Amino acid sequence: MNLRYRRAIAPMLRAAAPRHSACQHCGWPWSRVVPRSVTYEERETSSSGIFFVCTDCWPLLTAAEAIKYACRTVLGYGPAGMRHTAWDQSTGVTAVLAVAKEMGASQVEESHLPL
Ligand SMILES: [Zn+2]
Fold first, then answer.
1. How far away, in angstroms, is 26 Cα from ligand 1 center?
2. Half-sphere exposure of 103 toward its Cβ, with a 13 Å CA cutoff?
3. What count of other Cβ atoms lies within 10 Å of the Cβ of residue 107?
4. Alpha-carbon distance 11 to 60, whole Å?
5. CA distance 78 to 24
6. What are phi and psi of 65, to 5 degrees?
7. Is residue 70 a contact partner of residue 91, using CB atoms and an 8 Å limit?
8. What pLDDT, on the 0 to 100 scale, is given for residue 83?
9. pTM for the complete prediction?
10. How far is the CA of 87 from the centre of ligand 1 (A)?
């Protein structure tokens, strides 16, 4: 299903799932798509990840888009004005830098992030 169509019907899908947040690229609620997670911290028995788009949208993203969406996520903003709790700053920076690295934008530095 192409992105234009997915975005066109996203508001209806979100209205039907008002308690779910959504993919920041296509707008589909997490009840309808699978999130694509980026691991930013590995521990012995667990790990932590950040997700902001679905597995269908991930291959379509530019590095700039991925970093923009990751910043919005840690600042507490979702699509369509949905508001969530912001992350603590050092964890947010770590997560966004992990996204930049995975997107091949490893030259991004903490001082360049709007966090
Ligand atoms: Zn998506």
1. 4
2. 24
3. 9
4. 20
5. 7
6. -65, -45
7. no
8. 73
9. 0.89
10. 22
* CA terminus-to-terminus distance, the chain: 34
Residues of the chain with pLDDT under 70: 78-82
How much distance in Å is there from the Cα of 12 to the middle of ligand 1? Answer: 15
Distance 34 CA to ligand 1 centre (A): 8
Q: How far is the CA of 56 from the centre of ligand 1 (A)?
A: 6
Q: How far is the CA of 54 from the centre of ligand 1 (A)?
A: 4
pLDDT for the residue numbered 80? 58
Pairing of strands 35-42, 47-54: antiparallel
Q: For residues 29 and 39, give the distance between their C-alpha atoms in angstroms, rounded to a whole number.
A: 21
